[in-house]
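User: What would this chain look like folded?
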Amino acid sequence: MNQMKFPKRYLIVILTFVSTCVCYIERVGFSIAYTVAADAAGINQSSKGTILSTFYYGYACSQVPGGWAAQKIGGRKVLLLSFLLWSSTCFLVPLDPNRVAILVVARLLVGVAQGFIFPSIHTVLAQWVPPHERSRSVSLTTSGMYLGAAMGMLVLPSLVKFKGPQSVFLAEAALGAMWSLLWFKYATDPPRSEHPKATAAGFGESLLPTKASQKKVENGGSTARTAKIPWKRILVSRPVWAIVVNNFTFHYALYVLMNWLPTYFEQGLQLSLQEMGSSKMMPYFNMFIFSNIGGVLADHLITKRIMSVTKTRKFLNTVGFIVASLALMALPIFRTSGGAIFCSSVALGFLALGRAGFAVNHMDIAPRYAGIVMGVSNTAGTLAGVVGVDMTGKLLEAAKAEYSDLSSPESWRAVFFIPGLLCIFSSFTFLLFSTGERIFD
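Assistant: Here's the prediction, encoded as structure tokens.
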């Protein structure tokens, strides 16, 4: 009796899920380990902020080049090289807060390396995953970020406590190396034989990179060269800009909450994070759950022909961002731990649900150039994090000067209203300008 064969594309999706999980363990791990080491060394807050933000500058710079490299070389190879680079950096660099120059260079390298990851993943998924499975595949892959962040926050503080901050670097390097071995062994490019309708459907071998001089002859017919990347059409496309605007808003809200929610708990609500236990991780677990719910729901709506691809993307994006906007603007009203956890969990959960709209749309409109479009939009998302986190600090400084402390709801209203209003603006932008149709051949 023949055993049912496990589809190779499922293994690829699982490996990309693990890759995003490992990446976010690294990001959270560095923040935890460096903060402990810097506090022990008496480093001031300004210097700590410089080191912690350096990663994002490198990350922003490599998004578009990452999409270009994945398009030209292949997402599978670029993803492997990226993991090897940041894992090696973590392994080799000593965590000494007083050696600022070394840490700045190291964080820039890790940021640049990880900037190649998501464009490469989108390129790989566009090649392997058929259109009716893309929503849940992308949602599962990106949900690894939230699970990784939650796992890092729960596990790594104990590792720092018992083994010291440097042990986090070594653990992260080991995780990166193990994933690289798995990817090297099991990841391949998709053979056309598994996807006989690949070209028509917009995935498979038809999206693999080929050399500029290489010609392909099919059915004894005409030859074709690799198409040039339509940079101008991409940069002036309204559907692309709809994705860019929503990516900016998503990451603005996410990074503001990731970086300032602990301060809101401690100074805004006068709560102790240690006494809150594991409840403070509920927003990230909620993102993990809702991200996958959104993916499964989107594929169900499309596969069962309940909605078109365009209507499905717009529906989930709108619901996710509008509900998140209401939760964000309500957050400073709640003055208890349970209320704040509930509001932040709803906000982040529905933002993750909205990813089944804008975040999958790269592969709908441009499966061949999914990595490049992802690189463009993720650059905006990374810059949103830099701008949002920095501006929030300035808003709180101004509020502290006006209200003498940060314990009043008024001190935090602007912090949460800005991403809330951005969510409303972005949802209408996506409704007006997005499409689920393929517009780039």
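Residues 193-225 have pLDDT under 50 and may be disordered. If you want, I can go into more detail on any region.
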